[in-house]
Amino acid sequence: MDNVTPETLYKELSKTVIGQEGYLKSLCNAAWLHSLRYQHYKHTGEALDKPKQNILCIGPSGTGKTLAVEQLGRLLNLPVVIENASMLRGEGWKGRSVSSIIARCIDAAPDKNEAEATHSIVCLDEIDKVFKSRPGDQSFLPVDNLLTFMAGSVVVHTDNNRTRKMDTSRLLIVCLGAFDGLEGIIRERMAGKASIGFSAKKPAELPEGSLLPYVTEDDLHTYGISHEFLGRISLITHTNPLSLEDYNRILIQSDASPVYQYDRLLHKTIGVHAGITEEAARCMARQAMGSKEGARLLARTVTDLLQPELHTVAGDASVDSIEIGCGVDNSLVAYQTHMGREDLWEDFCTGSPETDSQTLSSVPLSCIRGRNEIVELAKSIKDASPRKVLLTEEETIAAVYILAAAIAFQLVENNGKGMTMDHVAQMLDRFYDLDTRDMKCFCVHPLEHIGAEFFIEAEKHVRDWDTKIVYARQMLLDYCNAWICSHGQAEQ
Questions:
Q1: Which residues is 325 bridged to in the sheet?
Q2: Is 374 within a domain?
Q3: Can you give the residue range of the structural domain that contains 411?
Q4: pTM assigned to the model
């Protein structure tokens, strides 16, 4: 992401996480400072450990606490490790140790680079469970190890005779938890205990809504969190309970909408849209309001409703969308519409040749001149195309061999030097008028013989030769678009 500031981060996160302005702004401020340290380290090699960023966020389940951290890692292109703190055990006990988190950071870093891993974002989810264990479990708890980890020190982890170590001083650590029962502690403090007798004071009038904005360190200590742990927290924030309007916006507007996620997957692969009516969104929002699961209930409800329609959609080409709506009794229902789906292969035939040529010319033809390497490149081109799911197995095999033949013949010319995928596309165009019956008789170069053999393999799996060339060309264009996208992001 370019131009990283707290404001730009907040703007992006708000597209996904709904109704949590205070939490997102606090998280974005901390992430921005973390990003400054990381960029300084990358450019100078100097590590800036302070100020140490450890955040504690309190809030109901399903309000976007973890989702915000995950999305933040994607925006900053930094490793993110989500750890269920309730599963951690003290060092020496059977189970997952706190020190294992550093191994996960290293594994998540680009090329498992340990220097990059030191700037990871570590999310300790369900941290409240660590402090609500039974008295007999105290010796199993990882609290002391967490104190060391969060303070910033060199942590050593040994697993399967492999030892790794990492300085945790530069980690951004975000602790999350629902803290069930904490509001009762806040309420008791704010209301004050009524005394007995004529001098009893009238309890203070409490504010409406959630009391989490009024939490204090003393409240958290009463809950069971040690002063030592709280001393390692630099910022305490919270999420709000979601309103009816928030749930509605999650379904209709959020990038994390389960409806949008199904729509994106189905439309990009088989040309089928998924949607939800406003009435159905309001109905589903009301159901979520009455649940303790929060936004998680939305995802499960959408998935449950779509199951019967998903089972039949692939085999019925007349289906153009799956909609979620309300039935006559106001119950939620999913149904298909049958307007005929768009032809995802049509784009190449009707697109701009100039634009396609520019795209193809931007991607180099890089391949060793060997049979296996050529086939592997052809398969990679096929794998990059979302449209492969529209083809039968025979059609897919034919398209791969046609691509392999084009690559082989193109590598003969100029030894493959300075060539792009546009040259492969031009070779595919020449295949339309090619008579393959006596091809091997005219082959001289070893690669020409290999190319001819690929043709023969393709013919075993093909009926409509010209159509399969169109498929191969579209796969090639999809591959180039994906290549340009990934290399463009890498440069950023």
A1: 333
A2: yes
A3: 349-491
A4: 0.67
